């Protein structure tokens, strides 16, 4: 399959009628799949009402079919065609955080969407992205778009069009290049089908921000207990992984350096993921900084690009620092834990 690339400046006037947007939307109307930027990561969009289109998303990513997809909309009116009701707390969250990096799980209308998009569940995950190109494409297509991250399943999520091209060229119809994304981590997923909203996946909106708006918010036990079955799209399987074994280390930088030294003595090529503050401290084969520890939002923004950068270095093992799990740090540690898939080394 030939993959077309369109470059679009998000600041262009009348994006909805911009020729490249119209071309991309036409592909989506034909039940093809197209990657496009959002404020979080690049998404791989397809018609959420059509089984054929949704299957193409799963096939392109190599994603298991029991992993539901998030449905993206451009305006609140769209939601009424496939959702039974909007609870009061969900409406408050929409008012506060839409458009933006918040996905809300609601009860869906029977037969309104492809069963494959929701993995046969009675609920649907919905969000309105805060990116002019994403909104323009959704509006121009006139469709609710199922759109997981536009990467091969298990690999780091894409924050540039080049990341998408590296993974999916020849597997999808098109890529809309709108430049680098902003937040860098996927949306927060909140289940609003119960009495108390529950975070199923931490992301761009923090627990603290949610609680400022709706009061008490719980957290899915599966985020801390690997024996619990996760309920959120994208949380069931290992994700975001670099090619080499990746270990998180709960310890001082001196203790991390000791681990590096031991592995190099075994003739292994070792990488370290740190932050700008500690860049000069480590002596390893490859040391890559991921943002600034003093500003965790910069770590979130750079995380996936950093994980991908290690893949260019032919490493045998990677050690990474851990971060405090407050604010966006909760989402950062969630993604790092999923990328590792290995027990944290505690020193």
- SSE class: alpha/beta
User: How would a crystallographer describe the biggest sheet?
Assistant: 11 strands, mixed
Helix content: 25-40%
Overall average residue pLDDT = 93
CATH superfamily of the largest domain: DHBP synthase
Provide the domain count.
2
**Radius of gyration (Å):** 20 Å
What is the CATH class designation of the largest domain? Alpha Beta
Low-confidence stretches: none
How many helices does DSSP assign?
Answer: 10
Could you give the count of β-strands?
16
| H/E topology pattern | EHEEHEHHEEHEHEEEHEEHEEHEHE
Termini distance? Answer: 49 Å
In CATH terms, what is the fold-level topology of the largest domain? Answer: DHBP synthase
Beta-strand proportion: 15-25%
Could you give the order of strands across the largest sheet? 1-8-2-3-7-4-6-5-9-10-11
What would the principal axes of the Cα set say about the shape?
globular
Family: Belongs to the SUA5 family.
Pfam families: Sua5_C (PF03481), Sua5_yciO_yrdC (PF01300)
Enzyme class: transferase
Protein name: Threonylcarbamoyl-AMP synthase
């Amino acid at each position: 399959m030939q993959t077309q690339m369109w470059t679009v400046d998000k600041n262009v006037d009348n994006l909805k009628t911009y020729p490249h947007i119209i071309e991309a939307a036409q592909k989506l109307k034909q039940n093809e799949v197209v990657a496009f930027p959002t404020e979080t990561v690049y998404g791989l969009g397809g018609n959420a009402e059509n089984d054929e289109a949704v299957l193409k998303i799963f096939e392109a990513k190599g994603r298991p079919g029991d992993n539901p997809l998030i449905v993206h909309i451009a305006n609140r009116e769209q939601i009424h065609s496939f959702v039974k009701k909007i609870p009061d707390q969900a409406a408050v969250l929409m008012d506060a955080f839409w458009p933006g990096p918040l996905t809300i799980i609601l009860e869906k209308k029977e037969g309104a969407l492809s069963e494959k998009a929701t993995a046969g569940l009675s609920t649907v995950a919905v969000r309105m992205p805060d990116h002019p190109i994403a909104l323009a494409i959704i509006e121009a297509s006139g469709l609710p778009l199922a759109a997981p991250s536009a990467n091969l399943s298990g690999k780091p999520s894409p924050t540039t069009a080049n990341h998408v091209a590296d993974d999916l060229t020849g597997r999808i119809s098109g890529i809309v290049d709108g430049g680098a994304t902003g937040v860098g981590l996927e949306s927060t997923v909140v289940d609003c089908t119960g009495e108390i909203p529950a975070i199923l996946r931490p992301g761009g909106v923090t627990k603290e921000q949610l609680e400022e708006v709706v009061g008490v918010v719980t957290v899915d036990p599966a985020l801390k207990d690997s024996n619990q079955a996760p309920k959120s799209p994208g949380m069931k399987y290992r994700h975001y992984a670099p090619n080499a074994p990746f270990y998180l280390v709960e310890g001082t930088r001196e203790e991390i350096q000791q681990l590096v030294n031991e592995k190099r003595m075994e003739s292994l090529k070792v990488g370290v993921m740190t932050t700008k503050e500690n860049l000069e401290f480590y002596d390893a084969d490859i040391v890559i900084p991921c943002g600034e520890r003093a500003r965790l939002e910069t770590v979130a923004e750079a995380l996936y690009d950093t994980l991908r950068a290690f893949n260019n270095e032919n490493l045998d093992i990677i050690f990474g620092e851990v971060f405090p799990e407050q604010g966006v740090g909760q989402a950062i540690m969630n993604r790092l834990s999923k990328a590792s898939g290995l027990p944290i080394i505690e020193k």
